[in-house]
Amino acid sequence: MVNYKVEHDRPGCIGCGACAALAPEFWEMDADGKSDLKNCQKKEENNEIVLESLDIEEKDFEKHKEAASACPVNVIHIIEKETGKKII
Ligand code: SF4
Q1: Domains in the chain: boundaries
Q2: Best of 6, 28, 35 to mutate for ligand 1, by most ligand atoms within 8 A of CB?
Q3: Which residue CA neighbors atom 6 of ligand 1 most closely?
Q4: Is 9 helix (H, G, I), strand (E, B) or coil?
Q5: What separation in Å is there between the alpha carbon of 51 and the centre of ligand 1?
Q6: Averaged over 18-39, what is the pLDDT?
Q7: Which residues neighbour 31 within 8 Å (Cβ) at sequence distance 6 or greater?
Q8: pLDDT in the model for residue 1
């Protein structure tokens, strides 16, 4: 069951690598120095990815929360789908 949505405000990513180090099954570093959420939906504007998003299940919540908590510039967010509440 899909419970949450993870969003990556990619333009603000400073490429520290924390998310990819903590949750390599979900995050990877790209050649441009920023991270990517694997298998996500990408929203582009002017040939730049402005937002990555991925629906996740409860079982993957803690791992994504760990990555989001470690992001030094707070560009990873988790939203509860049913209520629209932003968890982080
Ligand atoms: S932890 Fe944040 S700043 Fe660091 S690579 Fe991941 S999204 Fe980018």
Answers
A1: 2-80
A2: 35
A3: 19
A4: coil
A5: 13
A6: 98
A7: none
A8: 76
pTM: 0.96
Q: Is the CB of 19 under 6 A from ligand 1?
A: yes
DSSP 8-state code for residue 34: S
Please work out whether the CB of residue 37 comes within 6 Å of at least one atom of ligand 1.
no
Q: Which residues contact 41 (CB under 8 A, 6 or more apart)?
A: 52, 53, 54
At residue 2 the predicted structure's pLDDT band, cuts being 50, 70 and 90, is confident
d(CA 84, CA 2): 13
Q: Is 30 in contact with 20 (CB distance < 8 Å)?
A: no
Query: Hey, whose CA ends up nearest to atom 2 of ligand 1?
Result: 71
- Pick one of 3.40.50.1980, 3.30.70.20, 3.40.50.970, 1.20.120.450 as the CATH number of 2-80: 3.30.70.20
Q: Which amino acid does the sequence have at 33?
A: G
Spatial neighbors of 23 by CB under 8 A, at least 6 apart, are: 63, 64, 66, 67
